[in-house]
Design goal:
The structure is a homodimer of 302-residue chains. By secondary structure, chain A is an alpha/beta fold. Chain A is built from twelve helices and 18 strands. Chain A folds into two domains: 255 residues, 4-Layer Sandwich (Metallo-beta-lactamase, Chain A), CATH 3.60.15; 42 residues, no CATH class. In chain A, helix 8 packs across helix 10 and helix 10 packs parallel to helix 12.
């Protein structure tokens, strides 16, 4: 199972309805965070998510709205007795910034925080999945992240039954790509074994429209994208190095993704009388399966 | 008017009900914060307090639960166009820590943040009130703060009427300590002018029991005190350099304060089945006018 929970969906300034950016991803026993805005630890508590088991945090870029919750989350993990190391990933300068953040004040550090600086071209092999960072276009160094479940070899048990095979060591051999002899017949891997394509989730962080997102989002199951402004503000979005709802939808369409989430919503859509729903409506005209993210929205990636 | 609003009343780890420590104080047009735990900016928004007008922030000590909200609050003030300088006060090392915090990541600083390091014996003259820091006993350098409204000379208008005086320049002269002649009589200041004692509010931050709190809290209108543990855990509280509800009440009694608030409540009183109400009950046995603080509790100091 892959579960996504939106913990914070505001842009730079929080609102009464939207906390600062953070997305929780649970894959089997693994728990990941993408960005960690101020208040993330309490959002995790409020949703009753087991934050002590988060092992990897991916920071898209070093603007405070995307990282200021790291300090408190890590301090709480320390106070609660965590011993396992925690991995923090981000673009260039991340090591310096993490060290700087975690040495403000009198800091009790109970476990190792290991920071890795990433760039496009890298790949983090996490066993059953890979994380692939890619370059986006913001006014400071910034990364998007692809969560890519690895493809799996699975036995088509209906086909196996035709050969009289059920689960067992012979199926295992076939999965390894080796032919087997059974009841006097040679069974080749391609007779039974099928490739199951891994699921793919893409998170852009803050970025203006760039073709590079399309390149990395091809056929993704889920694309989560900066949609700070409505389509009325294309120029403003560009000058602030953010995207609009319509640009988000165009990217989703060109990438042939299955599902689009709009996030990083400007507070103007709460407080000026303009509804944030407008962003969703605009996006759906271009890409039907678009949803405006909201805090505590949960989504299971089938 | 002096208004207090408790923005966060947890101890080191927040809970679903309690955010991390922060207290808002409004005095006429002045807005102050005592401590600024993670999430303080959103607590301010949720209570619809005008956080842009906060001009002074007093940090009791440099543990993350008391300062991690500074980063986001100041960043939001920048994004919202603040131009006025902001004063941050705290114990030794505060300058270094504020500078370190505000240079993590790519930080847009739109106004000046002026940090002042304080110690017992200092006094900050803020016009109509003083702030007096005092030494408390925690495992790192830590201060409590006295908010002390200045005494005022006021005319007793009933007494003035006896002399045929109403408001005017003669009253002004009397307030300056000068006698006046009116209708052939000499009126002395002490005939009409009375001293109105300023109100006093004391916040301890984190501390174990110490007589120094009593010394600085004498006859305070309000005492807000660390009450991390119940009276059952006196030894534990001492070893962790915190206070219990019963110690808090003893201090309130010995100081002859008018009102006591218990805060910095351990999360054990939410999650272990023990009610935090127990702390209030214990305190009231010793000092009747004790109240367990809760998030968004508002109190007007008459």
């Amino acid at each position: 199972m892959i579960k996504l929970v939106f913990l914070g969906t505001s842009s730079g300034v929080p609102t009464r309805d939207r906390n600062l950016p953070s997305i929780f991803l649970m894959y089997n026993k693994e728990r990941l965070l993408f960005d960690c805005g101020e208040g993330t630890q309490r959002q995790l508590m409020n949703f009753r998510l087991k934050f002590m088991k988060i092992d990897r945090i991916f920071i898209s870029h070093w603007h405070a709205d995307h990282f200021a919750g790291l300090l408190g989350l890590i301090q709480t993990m320390c106070l609660e007795g965590r011993k396992d190391p925690l991995y923090v990933y981000g673009p260039e300068q991340s090591k310096k910034f993490v060290e700087q953040l975690l040495t403000v004040g009198y800091y009790f550090r109970a476990f190792e925080v290991i920071t890795k600086e990433l760039k496009e071209g890298d790949k983090i092999d996490c066993g059953e999945y890979d994380i692939i960072p890619f370059r986006v276009e913001h006014n400071i160094p910034a990364l998007g992240y692809v969560f890519r479940e690895k493809d799996k070899e699975t036995a088509n048990m209906k086909k196996a039954a035709k050969y009289g095979l059920s689960t067992g060591p012979l199926i295992g051999k076939l999965k390894q790509g080796l032919p087997v002899n059974y009841r006097g017949k040679t069974i080749r891997p391609q007779d039974i074994i099928e490739k199951k394509t891994g699921r793919k989730i893409v998170y852009t962080g803050d970025t203006r429209y760039t073709e590079n997102i399309i390149k990395f989002s091809k056929s993704a199951d889920v694309l989560i994208i900066d949609s700070t402004f409505s389509g009325d503000f294309v120029e403003k979005a560009g000058s602030f190095m953010h995207s609009t709802s319509t640009q988000a939808a165009q990217i989703a369409k060109k990438s042939s993704v299955k599902k689009l989430f709009l996030t990083h919503i400007s507070r103007r859509y709460q407080e000026s009388g303009m509804s944030a729903k407008k962003l969703e409506d605009e996006a759906r005209k271009i890409f039907k399966n678009a949803t405006l993210a909201s805090d505590f929205l949960e989504y299971d990636v089938k």
